[in-house]
Recover the amino acids of this structure.
């Protein structure tokens, strides 16, 4: 694993962005970060049951993809889906309430952390079964091509999903049928707790794109504007030529695989090195050094975001439990034949 250079210059895609858009992206990344930290506290207090997979460290990807999207584009995600939802515009109160299993949650409290769904905001599900959503994304893209709705489907997956059977099946169909879909592998260096070099025979995941007949791109994450630029090129290809793309974004998660993972498998100094290139902190530096914002101004924004997430916690905690009948709401139940 290549450790980032703490003294590397600020990325050009970040320094060339305007103050307003940098500030907006900074706030959106910060909202995801503080939401996840609030969720982690709720989990330790017993407010959240089941699994909880945090997006801390990867926020720039979700925000950058959103910057590149058009209104009717779709996102199909993994179980690490809180960041996508917030970036897409999902309500923080509803997102937190879903984690708490409450009736006011994004899907009424029956989906939990791994199954967010917000169709009005373009989020077509978080999927807990690894790799099984890849063919689902191909299906969305097939519908777009068939209907001519000019939409592009973004499918997120982790590096641990690229060896799963349905991933191969979905990408094969995408290449075979020339579908407007972008498969975005968020390579955070670990498949749960196993380093990449022990799970994949080749380091470059996009090397397999040729076998699927699709374009490829691979880059180390720096900031949301870099993501917007690289994803934007793939979107243009998908929208204008109906061609799929496999993209690998090298990123890093600052927490364990889930809340039950203490992440003791990291090398000494590894986490600190990656934190030094955190997109949120780099954006904060640019806002101060290049755009003249003070530390107090940025701290005030952070305080506003923390207040928003504290309010989401209170909203979720005080919300009612769903009615028992709600668990049947989105299930197709056969109508019994009349006697």
């Amino acid at each position: 694993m290549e450790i980032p250079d703490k003294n590397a210059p600020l990325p050009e895609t970040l320094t060339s962005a305007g103050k307003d858009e940098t500030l907006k992206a900074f706030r959106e990344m910060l909202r995801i970060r503080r939401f996840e930290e609030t969720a982690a506290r709720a989990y330790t207090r017993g407010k959240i049951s089941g699994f909880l997979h945090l997006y801390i460290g990867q926020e720039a990807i979700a925000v950058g993809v959103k910057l590149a999207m058009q209104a009717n584009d779709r996102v199909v995600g993994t179980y690490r889906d809180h960041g996508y939802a917030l970036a897409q515009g999902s309500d923080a109160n509803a997102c937190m309430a879903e984690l708490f299993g409450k009736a006011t949650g994004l899907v009424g409290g029956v989906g939990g952390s791994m199954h967010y769904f917000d169709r009005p905001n373009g989020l077509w599900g978080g999927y807990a079964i690894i790799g099984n959503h890849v063919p689902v994304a191909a299906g969305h893209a097939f519908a777009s091509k068939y209907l001519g709705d000019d939409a592009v489907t973004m499918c997120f997956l982790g590096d641990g999903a690229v060896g799963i059977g349905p991933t191969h099946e979905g990408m094969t169909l995408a290449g075979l049928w020339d579908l407007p879909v972008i498969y975005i592998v968020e390579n955070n260096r670990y498949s749960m707790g196993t380093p990449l070099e022990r799970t994949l025979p080749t380091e470059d995941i996009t090397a397999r794109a040729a076998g699927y007949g699709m374009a490829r791109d691979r880059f180390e994450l720096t900031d949301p504007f870099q993501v917007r630029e690289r994803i934007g090129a793939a979107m243009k290809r998908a929208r204008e030529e109906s061609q799929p793309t496999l993209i690998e974004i090298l990123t890093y998660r600052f927490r364990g695989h889930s809340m039950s993972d203490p992440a003791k498998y990291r090398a000494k100094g590894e986490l600190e090195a990656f934190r030094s290139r955190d997109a949120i902190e780099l954006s904060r530096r640019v806002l101060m050094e290049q755009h003249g914002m003070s530390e107090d101004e940025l701290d005030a924004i952070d305080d506003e975001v923390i207040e928003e997430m504290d309010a989401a916690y209170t909203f979720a905690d005080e919300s009612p439990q769903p009615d028992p009948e709600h668990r049947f709401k989105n299930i197709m139940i056969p109508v019994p034949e009349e006697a």
The mean pLDDT is 93. The domain at 60-257+265-276 is CATH 3.40.50.970 (Rossmann fold). Residues 85 and 193 are 25 Å apart (CA to CA).
